[in-house]
Prior knowledge:
The complex is a heterodimer of chains A (116) and B (113). Helix content of chain A is 0%, strand content 54%. Chain A contains no helices and eleven strands. In chain A, the strands form two sheets. In chain A, strands 2, 4, 5, 9, 10 and 11 form a six-stranded mixed beta sheet that branches. Chain A is globular, with a radius of gyration of 14 Å. Chain A starts with a strand and ends with a strand. With 113 residues, chain B is an all-beta fold. Helices cover 0% and strands 57% of the residues of chain B. Chain B has no helices and eleven strands. In chain B, strands 2, 4, 5, 6, 9, 10 and 11 form a seven-stranded mixed beta sheet that branches.
Amino acid sequence: GEDVEQSLFLSVREGDSSVINCTYTDSSSTYLYWYKQEPGAGLQLLTYIFSNMDMKQDQRLTVLLNKKDKHLSLRIADTQTGDSAIYFCADPLTPYSGAGSYQLTFGKGTKLSVIP
Amino acid sequence: DTEVTQTPKHLVMGMTNKKSLKCEQHMGHRAMYWYKQKAKKPPELMFVYSYEKLSINESVPSRFSPECPNSSLLNLHLHALQPEDSALYLCASSPMGVREKLFFGSGTQLSVL
């Protein structure tokens, strides 16, 4: 099955809060990430959370981590039309031995549509 | 400088052409990556370079040939591609070490005719 799962679509009205959810299976992850991808663009690292934290707040963004349920969420307060994008949850897999680098596993992405 | 720069932004090529995609970063990152992203799909890992050496090749066809000439540059040489290779090709870099963050370029949108 998938290592990282997300719902595919979310539609909210401008000014409301958006909550994007993600579940993952790799319980040894030290960090979990949220990336944002606007149409025709690359991925922008939006925020991340250490696995020893339950919550991280960064301006309009709040990340919640429930390690017991392996559930990660991204809340965007006061959602704006500029927040319309695809949001990917990402979980690093165990690094390959000797490589020193690692592979991100991405969810399929949640397309956020903001209605003016 | 916290950017990963990719050129060109768009590329159209025929199936008999040879072209190259370029990626550059000046953050001192010693791990560099090529990802392929089809429309409406998440990125898929193709290659990883660690300290300028190829460390991961995710069973990518030989018509894709990566090259890392130095610690700041990563190339992807393309030859005899197929129309199904049309996709967004993303370069990324990260500091060496476990669980470090990936920084992505804006990608090259490739169309193979």
